[in-house]
Write a structure and sequence with these properties.
4 helices; two-stranded antiparallel sheet; alpha+beta; two-stranded antiparallel ribbon; about 130 residues; 2 domains
């Protein structure tokens, strides 16, 4: 299996998503010995005001969010899954990294806390806010 990413664009800038897929498919077929492209997807690369992802429970009990990965969704999404699953299971937990270091999930829960924006007057990035609404 080969995973290829590309065709980065900001939210709301591309009208023809299929054109992005086509360019990536053409690249894969020209570059790699492949029989077929089985799956493809598109996402929106959301960025937060402070550049740090939003991962965790919102101010509404039992409602969780993971967004704002700043184009790092494949890696940060994995971390988000670990954080949110530990929150749902109501556990404080450590994960082991390849270097045998214990990483405390609670540390990441505090960094990515969605409620850190709760008392803001208005968002600075109104263009993205308008598109999402």
């Amino acid at each position: 299996m080969l995973i290829v990413g590309g065709e980065h664009h900001s939210i709301g800038e591309i009208d023809n998503t299929w054109g992005c897929y086509k360019r990536l498919i053409d690249y894969v077929e020209e570059t790699f010995d492949t029989e077929e492209v089985e799956y493809f997807w598109s996402n929106q690369d959301n960025k937060t005001e402070d550049g740090v992802s939003i991962i965790g429970e919102t101010s509404h009990k039992g409602v969780y969010i993971a967004t704002g990965f700043n184009s790092w969704g494949m890696t940060t999404g994995t971390l988000a899954a670990n954080i949110i699953s530990q929150m749902i299971l109501d556990k404080s937990n450590k994960i082991r990294d390849p270097n045998d270091l214990d990483i405390n999930i609670d540390y990441y829960m505090a960094i990515f806390d969605p409620k850190r924006f709760k008392d803001r007057k208005k968002p600075k990035n109104l263009k993205i806010t308008k598109i999402i609404i």
